UniProtKB/TrEMBL annotation:
Organism: Actinokineospora auranticolor
Keywords linked to the UniProt accession: Cell membrane, Membrane, Transmembrane, Transmembrane helix, Transport
Segments crossing the lipid bilayer: 9-35, 41-61, 73-93, 105-128, 224-249, 255-276, 288-309, 315-333, 354-375, 395-416
Protein name in UniProt: Putative MFS family arabinose efflux permease
GO MF term set: transmembrane transporter activity
Length: 444
């Protein structure tokens, strides 16, 4: 293995990637199970809502920990606790006692662990990778959510062979792989031991809000967080409703193929971002690909067609690594390294907050508002229904049209906002003397 920071980043990232793949397979199988048992988009969306709320609740603590505690320890403990929750799930499945309500607390616990892991990982990343490669590294990091989206195709085949208990057991084994890699890979001391580790405490409230205070000192960064929150709101609504939309006109096996196609699009976007690194002015990448994402999302509403979704879902998800990678690179270079963990936690709160609102609104809007309006005798049947059709799933399709239009409007705002246009011109704070790590890695 290479001895430089990039090699270590690749090794740690690979371990987390294996774990994310296992979790994605289990999450897909459980999600389909809940929807088939309940028949409710609201109950299905509640899983994702609880995950988002749990992530928001612990994000300030995760940021404070990343600026105060050994980050390798955060990665290890997060995986251990998530593995324990998965072991409980495996026990329930094997004993035949799994109920719908069991899924919710287990999902919340694993989401909390993921928040600690992501905040620690994104804080370590810019301290390992040379700044000229930061955009590429952030693009490569987006392979993790891409694999989680692509996992359903593997889930369908595994479910037929090893059944639900076997799928959960595989997920549990992936945590062991991630833990082994994190333990064995030597990381530079200054990447994993925060500069504030021995600093006097500021008080609990000041510690928790330190990331927001740091961001407010940098004009344009609060606008960037608002942009990320709004983007994740729209993407969250689409994410929670795409599976119910597809299941209204096809079966779970086709759903798995389409989810894999979407994940492949995101993997392609991650590969492009990794090779390219994004535009020199990173905010340009954010706003340009926001517009492309909005158009692709809106076109999902045209017809209940597996072929249509198979083309548009990968196109939409292709944009996500470029949007997120560009935004993360901006935050990582424009924030003081001593507050980087808390700033990354603030970004996580903005993203998960938008996602939580999207998740909370999506199910009720689909089940109670737009779904009935686009039934054959509904209020919109003769107007909007004449364009996108009526019947099951057409209310969800209308939500896709609305969220797509919102993303295009968001891109227009990012183009018009002076603060966002100038955010690339802020001085870089991740200077060589602050980010150069010890040549001696910490013990593995």
């Amino acid at each position: 293995m290479r001895g430089d920071g990039i090699g270590r980043f690749l090794a740690i990232g690979a371990g987390q990637l294996v774990s994310v793949a296992g979790t994605g397979i289990t999450g897909f199988v459980l999600g389909v199970w809940v929807f088939q048992v309940t028949g409710s988009a609201t109950r299905f969306g509640l899983i994702m809502l609880l995950e988002a709320v749990a992530a928001i609740a612990v994000a300030p603590l995760a940021g404070m920990a990343a600026d105060r505690v050994d980050r390798r320890a955060i990665l290890l403990v997060s995986d251990v606790v998530a593995a324990a929750a998965t072991a409980v799930l495996l026990t329930l499945v094997r004993q035949g006692e799994l109920d719908v309500w069991h899924v919710y607390p287990i999902a919340a616990i694993t989401a909390m662990c993921a928040t600690f892991r992501v905040v620690a990982f994104t804080t370590v990343l810019p301290l390992l990778v040379p700044e000229r490669h930061l955009g590429r590294a952030n693009g490569l990091a987006q392979a993790q959510p891409a694999v989680q989206i692509a996992a359903p195709l593997a889930a369908g085949g595994l479910l037929a062979v090893v059944h639900l208990s076997g799928v959960v057991l595989i997920d549990l084994c992936t945590y062991a792989v991630a833990l082994a890699i994190t333990l064995l890979v030597g990381l530079p001391e200054k990447a994993v031991v925060p500069s504030r580790a021995g600093a006097p405490g500021e008080g609990a409230l000041a510690e928790l809000t330190g990331g927001l205070r740091e961001l407010r000192r940098r004009p344009g960064l609060p606008h960037l967080l608002l942009l990320l929150g709004a983007f994740h709101l729209a993407a969250g609504m689409a994410g929670v409703l795409v599976q119910p939309l597809i299941l209204t006109f096809t079966d779970p096996s086709t759903l798995g193929v389409l989810m894999f196609a979407g994940g492949a699009g995101m993997i392609a976007g991650s590969a492009v971002m990794t090779a390219w690194g994004g535009p020199d002015r990173r905010i340009t990448g954010v706003r340009a690909f926001l517009a492309i994402a909005g158009i692709a999302l809106a076109l999902h509403s045209l017809a209940p067609s597996a072929l249509l979704i198979g083309v548009l879902a990968p196109a939409f998800l292709f944009t996500l690594p470029i949007i997120t990678g560009s935004a993360m690179s901006l935050l990582q270079t424009k924030v003081d390294p001593s507050a980087l963990g808390r700033a990354m936690a603030s970004a996580r709160i903005a993203a998960q907050g938008g996602t939580a609102i999207g998740f909370a609104a999506a199910g009720p809007l689909a089940d109670l508002v737009f779904g009935p309006m686009l039934q054959p005798d509904g209020a919109l049947a003769d107007t909007v229904g004449a364009v996108i059709g009526v019947g099951d799933g057409r209310g969800i399709a209308l939500i896709f049209a609305g969220t797509g239009a919102a993303l295009v409007a968001l891109a227009a705002w990012a183009t018009a906002s002076p603060a966002l246009r100038a955010v690339d011109d802020l001085p870089d704070l991740l200077t060589t003397d602050k980010r150069e790590a010890d040549a001696r890695p910490t013990p593995g």
